[in-house]
Amino acid sequence: MFASKLPKCHSIYYLVVKANYSTQHARVVIGGAGVVGNSVAYHLAAKGWTDVLVLEQSTIGSGSSHFGSGTLGLFKPIADRDLIWYSIKLYQELQQKGYDIEMKRCGSLNLAKTKDRLIALKRRIAYNVPTGLQCELLDSKAVKDLHPYLFTEDLEGAVWIPDDAVANPIKICHVLAKLAQEYGVRYKENVIIKNVLTKNQRVYAVRTNEEVIHCDYFINCAGMWARELGLQCNPKVRIPAYPAEHFYALTSNLNLEEGLPCVRDYDSNSYIRQSGSGFLLGWFEQEAKAAFDDHPAIPKNWRHYLQHDWAQFENFWKKSMHRIPMLSSCPQPRLINSPDNFTPDGRWILGEMPSVSNYFVACGMNGNSLQGAGGIGNAMAEWIIEGRPTKDLLPFHVQRYLDVHNGRQYLQQRIKEVVGRHYAILYPLQCEYKYARKVRCSPLFSVLETKGAVFGIKMAYERALYFDTTCGDKKPTMPPGSFYKPQFFNFMKEEHNACREGVGIIDMSSFSKIDIKSDRAEDVVGYLQKLCSNEVNIPIGSIVHTGMLNEHGGYENDCMLVRQEENSFFMVSPTSQQTRVYEWLTKNLSSKSTVALNDVTSMYTVLNVVGPKASELIGELSNSDMLLHSFTYKKVNVGYASDVMVMSFTHTGDPGYCLYIPSEYALHVYEKLMVVGRDYGVRDVGTLTQRFMRIERFIPFWAEELTSFTTPFEAGNGYNVRLDKKDHFIGKEALMKQKRDGILKQLVFFQLNKINIDVDIWPWGGEPIYRNGEFVGTVTSAGYGFSTNKLIALGFLRRPKDSQVKTVTTDYILSKQAKYEIDIAGNKFPATPYIHAPIFATTVSERRKYKPTAIRSKAFM
Predict the structure, then answer these.
(1) Tens of pLDDT along 24-36?
(2) What is the distance between the alpha carbons of residues 546 and 717, in angstroms, rounded to a whole number?
């Protein structure tokens, strides 16, 4: 709801008065009266929830909202952009209503000094333009015309975004508070929240230094103090955000002409905007400093502890003078330290806490709270009122974190590089963090490291991406990133050959694992039948692949369920689901249930043993007949290790097994596999190769293809849905309706044609898909198809925006009149669609003979 629904402003904004009435109960209590907290309060009230109380430890807008660049930039990934777009529209309407928030639609110039930077900007143009954002690629002359003060001769190009804007953060903060109060929201300043009280893991009250306030919902919008406030709940809630020093400078009066666009000079780590008749210049340091690291907690009077080291920014200032030569004759500007909360991955933190019902959070604005505040306030209000997000906010969900992410030392190390990554070129799958590493490791980590593993992280877990078999005794490192064929591609190709002709060993230990059991078989079966779209009342020793859905038929989990006993199941889910799925299982468990859940992720090391010779290898090591039927398992001894669960499926769609090994046996089992496996052509394989193999087999994956807004029918997983099972399951009605009415999007496999893998830019995800020249979808995953030597992609197709028909059918997708193209950084390549994984000729006789490399690892010598 925008400000158009409000009465016109009768006076310019001003501060909300302190409440002097009883506040012993409120439907919603919000902690923090910064621009985000005020936006949430305003949107709740505008939607009819007016029984809202905002508590502020100091005065409104006295935290990091008091500072900030005031820039509003839309040239971002779609999920971020859509929320920022709402913010800009909201602020514009506030301005039109007469509120003086100093908003100007000045546009922005996004500069590229290098060829790779220009490719990164072109990729962003490609997916932003068809989804509604006006973008224009400019040469250096056109840049100079728009901003005559810029030096442009060293530029490869730039992107002009006319809808970008600037505004005054503190004025907007106060206006939103004023409007919220007009709707009936109450504010109390100079109140300290001592703790959030819970009963049966649900919020029921907030204790302050003055009183206990009963409430149904609590929303943590405490900015720099959000993490510490989360720790004051019982049970504690994790909010991994910590302030980093973030600097900008204000020049003196330079008599600038009006209406200059904002400038983002990415390759100089700087942004520049007009501020009055001078410039405001800010920097995202490549290696920033954690704020208040010598304090046990973030101080309330934080401004007294800020340091201003001009020498630290002298080099940045020189770069700014290079970009704007007139600054060389400017007096030294005023340097301002404006710390803000940064998160471990540089994305906002939104949503309901997994450990406490009705405890919500909106924080981690990563250097610009104004930019997202409007859209975030609206999204959070809808989420709370509707009981679920009304748009896909998965990239920002708080459930993407574990307790390890919330450690103070971890955060202080990680955010040092998060700040600089805002303006870095983040090459897909090739930009790993260097700080706060080696936190969660497989028991095989050290051995794999000696064998050339190059590691990446997921959920703080170290995973081998690929193996550099040429590194010798040196520890390999990731080579410089590329948008083209990656430099390590040949290693991946050898790994793939091992999986298709011999045996590949992939450490998949990071997958989340949960024991689900009850004293009574009927209880645990009934519980899972309600949650799962597939039939789970399967024989002991069987495995079922199933989704767990929400009421709208969208995925909340994609998992394998292994029935170990009549009353016991073992669940395997994607790595990033460890927090989220446990929360979903708990949320749907009644207080009287006899079902018990136990996260056993760290108890098992998981080895994916892939390839046509996997059965022979495991058979020799276990002295067992390993000709298991698909989707069954049995416990065997492997070498001297007992109770190894051997499951007859792989995560690549290829022949083989998953070995779930009690972690104390992991090194022994791995050593036996590698030593005995020499005769079978065994080789270590990384998760990047596994990823490409997964795409080639048309296997959709969580957070890329499968989300809360994607159903099994849309993702091609209808075979995992049993609408005819007698037990009701969550989402069944929505799926029955969808089956009757048809689907509005469909996941499709594409092979790209007329593209040179050695010369052209590769697709990596996010590329727009065109059908007969009309935008119809976006690539979700992309990679290389080793079996066909072609680049491949998965993506959802819809009807064109203006089409009268909305349902998507096989005939529509595969029509002979349909010509498909995928736009890769401005170049469109023809693509062939498939609704099932193509059948590839991959027999050994049709391929060159794979020659295994002898193992010379020090670990086994």
Answers:
(1) 899 999 999 999 9
(2) 9
Helix (H, G, I), strand (E, B) or coil at 84: helix
Q: What is the DSSP string of 1-39?
A: --GGGSPPPSS---PPPPP-S--SEEEEEEE--SHHHHH
Q: Could you give the C-alpha distances from 846 to 8, 68, 503, 786, 788, in angstroms and in order?
A: 75, 62, 18, 13, 12
In whole angstroms, what is the distance from residue 825 CA to residue 465 CA?
A: 25
Output the pLDDT for position 67: 77
- CA 784, CA 689: separation in Å to the nearest integer? 9
Q: pLDDT category, 20, cuts 50, 70, 90?
A: very low
Query: Given a cut of 70, is residue 476 above it in pLDDT?
Result: yes
Rounded to two decimals, what is the model's pTM? Answer: 0.94
Asked if 502 contacts 855 with a C-beta cutoff of 8 angstroms, the reply is: no
The full DSSP string for 665-710 is GHHHHHHHHHHHGGGGTEEEE-HHHHHHHHHHTT---BTTTB-TT-
Select the more confidently predicted residue: 861 or 351. 351
Residue 786 CB-half CA count within 13 A: 27
Q: CB–CB of 529/536 below 8 Å?
A: yes
Q: Are 689 and 499 in contact (CB under 8 A)?
A: yes
pLDDT per residue as tens digits for the range 289-335: 999 999 999 998 998 888 877 887 888 899 999 999 999 999 989 99
Of the candidates 325, 324, 737, 330, the residue with the CA atom closest to the CA atom of residue 553: 737
For the chain, first and last CA: distance in Å?
Answer: 68
The whole-angstrom separation of Cα 507 and Cα 455 is 11
